[in-house]
Design goal:
234 residues, alpha+beta, four-stranded mixed sheet, four-stranded antiparallel sheet, 5 helices, 8 strands
Amino acid sequence: MTTRLLPTPEAGDLLDLAAQIADRELAPRAAAAEAAGEFPRDAFATLGQAGLLSLPYPEELGGGGQPYEVYLQVLEEVAARWLTVALGMSVHVLSCFPVVAWGSAEQQARWLPRMLGGQTLGAYCLSEPHAGSDAAALTTRAERVDGGYRVTGTKAWITHAGAADFYNLMVRTSDDGSRGISCLLADASTPGLSSAPPERKMGAKASRTAQVLLDGARIPSDRLIGAEGQGFKI
């Protein structure tokens, strides 16, 4: 038996809900989807409708208002049935963080309901082929142009690349080291934004991992999250 930390009155019910959904909707499909490398996009809509993608975020923004201990234990319940979905869940919830913590009220009202409800799926684009653990060394460049930014570079090892609806891009807007990095929220339909073929992996084969390719991608200025130079802090 696993001893669970239940810091809120709702915690036990949320864990039971996660286990029931995972047993009913995820576990029966996992083996076949992993063998076929089939990405389970619909699983995230199911989890979002159940309120499980918004757990650690404030209620006033549409979140569940739960401590991270509860959210992480929900992830464990999902991972015990299907690792790919738990991995995707953790990446998506991370991808909501910039708008939750740094977005303007207009940005939060515009994007968060669909993000936290699972209608849109996110990707978090920080690492690059030569900038992994040293994130401040990233070189993807966002050049200011009329109405926004022109972004050129390559992001590496991105979960949901090619399947996401939105991409958090950590980009260089100046040469001032870590203080020259900014965060842009790009729509998947952005011209010049594409993904490379998925990586070949030893496990979690239903989870898409690939490079995100940015070839002069034009991103409007209203998709800057926070201020220029705050991307590394975000």
